[in-house]
Every structure is written in structure tokens, then in C-alpha cells.
Specification:
Largest sheet: 7 strands, mixed
Radius of gyration: 19 Å
Mean pLDDT: 94
Shape: globular
Low-confidence stretches: none
Order of helices and strands: EEHEHEHHEEEEEHEEEEHEEH
Length: 307
């Protein structure tokens, strides 16, 4: 597995912004402090234990992995059922340093935040049936309809990203005009496919992805024109770690764009999604074509003034 490391302090804006501009991705270090990471993990586990469907006689217990079998998790690890609107998701989104990074990117403080699926992987080295699969290399910005710089996607891992676990992989410099022209030549029919643009299995760029290494609480950023995807790690752990009651991966996608880019219909749909516990896409200022319906009987959480 190829891996790459490119992390900068959040205050070093000129350096990390230049790396994002030239390479198409970057890691901004420590936007969440260790205490905030711990609080976020606790909030997600409270959500899992208290709100997800389960057996009342043997409820899900974060400290007992044998109870995790009843946690029905998407095989890719995508948590869409009201999890994007839970307290853990909103806690991470409202961390000031997360907002500050996107405010620097757009030179704008009045931003909207995405309400995308959270990613969780159970430790498949403990139970082979938990081994996730990934969606593969793709684009999330159609290179025909949206040719220019329009969105920076983000992800906050709450556990370290290592070659054992895996995580986000990118192909550097595939966001450039030249790279997008090549993509359009290889995939002329993608013009009509929306923003989900997967690479074919025999695409010449397959195998070129590099795992972006990061620490818990970092913010991984990538230009939406950059080819990226999920990649599974080796799963090789020592005996002590293999029995540790801890998720292999828990990552919170976060993307922010200026509020002024959204029209009233989008703002209305965003409010509806929050109130109904629905999942939207990574585009904060668009309704998108991949959001999920809400949850019947869902009661929205109370947001803080900042949220």
C-alpha cells in the first residue's frame, strides 16, 4: 500500500493552502484537541447505544465487542440513518478551528456546513465478517458541468489513519485542468452522470492512489476535482490490539462553503433534513442527488448558537 504524509499547522495557512492548490489535498494538524476527540467519540457511542435499532435483552455496549454483531452497519461503513444529525456530528462540525480553516479557504466567515454520512469501520481483525469494502476511486465533482475550483471536501478522523486500518486515498495532482481534460476524454458519457464519477476497474490510474496518513483530530482536505476513494489497510495487529474494544475507523466528513452560494430552496431543504434526521451530500450549498430520506419519528437535537 502506498501512503503519503503532508501535514501542516493550521496557522501556517500559506503553506497548507499552497499544497492544496498544487497537489489537490493536504492535512491540517490538530483542529481538534485530544479532549475534543474523546468527547466526539463518546457522543457517537452514546448515539449508537441509545438510538440505533438493537436487541433490548443484549443491547449494544461500546466496551463489549460481542454485542456489536447486532449493530447493522452499511458494508462500506456509511452511517446515514440520522447519524449525520446526531450530537457527535454537530460537535465536530462546530469546532472553531474547523470553521476557521474553511473561512480561510473562501475568505468568508458566513458558511454552510455539509450534513454527510459518518464513516465507521468495525475491527475486522476481531471478526472477519466485519471487513468493510470501499467505493473505489472516483470524483465527487463532475468534470464536464463543474470544471473549476468549486468545493473543498474535508474529513476529521477520530482515530489515527494508519496502513493497518486504511482510510482516504488520493491521487495527487488529478485536480488540474490537464488531468480533467484527460478524464473527459476517457469518460465522455460522464457528462450526464451527475457528480458521482467512478473510475473503471481497468482505468490506467487504478493502483495509483496513496493513503493519506493523519492523526486523530487532524482535518484532511481535498479539492473535489481530485480523484480519491477509500482504501482498506492490512488489518495486521498484535494480539493485545486485536482484542481492544475500539472501532478501527471513525471519521466525520466536513465541508463548508459560503452561505451566499445557496438559494432559498436549498436552505429550506437543509432545515428539513435537520429536522427529519436526513443525510445530505458533501455539497453544503446544493441539494445534491445522493441524500437519504429522514427517519420516521425522529426528534431533532438542540443546537447551540454556534451550530
Amino acid at each position: 500500500m502506498q501512503s503519503i504524509q503532508a501535514s501542516f499547522d493550521s496557522d501556517d495557512f500559506s503553506s497548507w493552502r499552497e499544497h492544496l492548490k498544487t497537489e489537490g489535498f493536504v492535512v491540517v494538524r490538530k483542529v481538534l484537541c485530544p479532549g475534543e476527540v474523546h468527547n466526539a467519540i463518546d457522543l457517537f457511542w452514546t448515539h449508537i447505544e441509545k438510538t440505533l435499532p438493537q436487541d433490548d435483552e443484549k443491547p449494544i455496549d461500546r466496551s463489549n465487542m460481542d454485542t456489536w454483531h447486532q449493530w447493522s452497519l452499511d458494508s462500506r461503513g456509511f452511517m446515514t440513518r440520522n447519524t449525520p444529525q446526531c450530537k457527535g456530528s454537530w460537535f465536530v462540525r462546530s469546532i472553531p478551528k474547523v470553521h476557521d480553516v474553511f473561512a480561510k479557504i473562501w475568505d468568508e466567515k458566513d458558511l454552510l456546513v455539509s450534513m454527510d454520512a459518518v464513516i465507521a469501520w468495525k475491527p475486522w481483525w476481531y471478526h472477519s465478517g466485519w471487513k468493510p469494502y470501499t467505493e473505489g476511486l472516483h470524483l465527487d465533482q463532475n468534470p464536464f458541468e463543474k470544471k473549476d475550483f468549486a468545493c473543498v471536501q474535508g474529513m476529521v478522523p477520530l482515530y489515527d489513519v494508519t496502513t493497518t486500518v486504511g482510510g482516504l486515498e488520493v491521487i495527487p495532482q488529478t485536480h488540474t485542468d490537464e488531468a480533467k481534460e484527460d478524464f473527459r476524454k476517457r469518460y465522455p458519457k460522464m457528462k450526464y452522470s451527475g457528480d458521482w464519477c467512478p473510475l473503471r476497474q481497468k482505468d490506467p490510474l487504478q493502483g495509483s492512489g496513496q493513503l493519506v496518513l493523519a492523526q486523530a483530530g487532524d482535518l484532511i482536505l481535498w479539492d473535489s476535482r481530485t480523484i480519491h476513494g477509500g482504501v482498506l489497510g492490512t488489518g495486521e495487529t498484535d494480539r493485545e490490539d486485536s482484542n481492544k474494544a475500539q472501532l478501527a475507523r471513525l471519521s466525520v466528513p466536513v465541508c463548508m462553503t459560503p452561505r451566499s452560494w445557496a438559494d432559498e430552496e436549498v436552505l429550506r431543504e437543509r432545515r428539513n433534513a435537520f429536522e427529519m434526521g436526513a443525510c445530505m451530500t458533501h455539497w453544503p450549498h446544493e441539494i445534491g442527488d445522493g441524500h437519504s430520506p429522514g427517519t420516521y419519528g425522529y426528534v431533532p437535537i438542540d443546537l447551540t448558537e454556534e451550530q
